Amino acid sequence: MWPEYIHHLFLQVPTTGTIGMAVLGIVYVKKPAENLEQLLRFFGWALFFVSTVTAISGILSAPGILGGDGPDELSHHRNFGVMVFLLVGFATIGFEVGFRSTSSFSHYIKKAASLMWIGAAVSAFAAGHWGGSVVHSDQIPWDKTAPAIQKLKK
Predict the structure, then answer these.
(1) Direct distance between the N- and C-terminal alpha carbons of the chain, in angstroms, rounded to an integer
(2) Which is nearest to 52 in space by CA: 87, 19, 16?
(3) Which of 3, 67, 93, 154 could bridge 57 with an S-S bond, Cβ 3.0-4.6 Å?
């Protein structure tokens, strides 16, 4: 019970946070600035922590071993959620590596890591779509007779 509660408590942060970080990342790629670097680093690590809590609690609350059971919609939700976690991790750690590097390529590393936030935001949107279609199926005005929705009602 507690993993599901924690998952639902924290799941909005990666969704909205990745969108904000994608915007910051695009701005940073177009016009790098030291204050943007500090924002990307701080909020990147904060979002990585929250994404970790969200992913672990989601997998623990899902049916089956490592959340492997359940309808296809739940599997899609889990897969995109894990993708969000991985992309947030790659973006955060990649940006930190670029920030600490003395290499002449550090600027490109930071820009590449900044653009990973776009992929994380798209994945978070997809994870939210599939998760919402499972949890809020009774409020969706279409496809109430879908087999996956009927499995959940049993």
Answers:
(1) 19
(2) 87
(3) 3
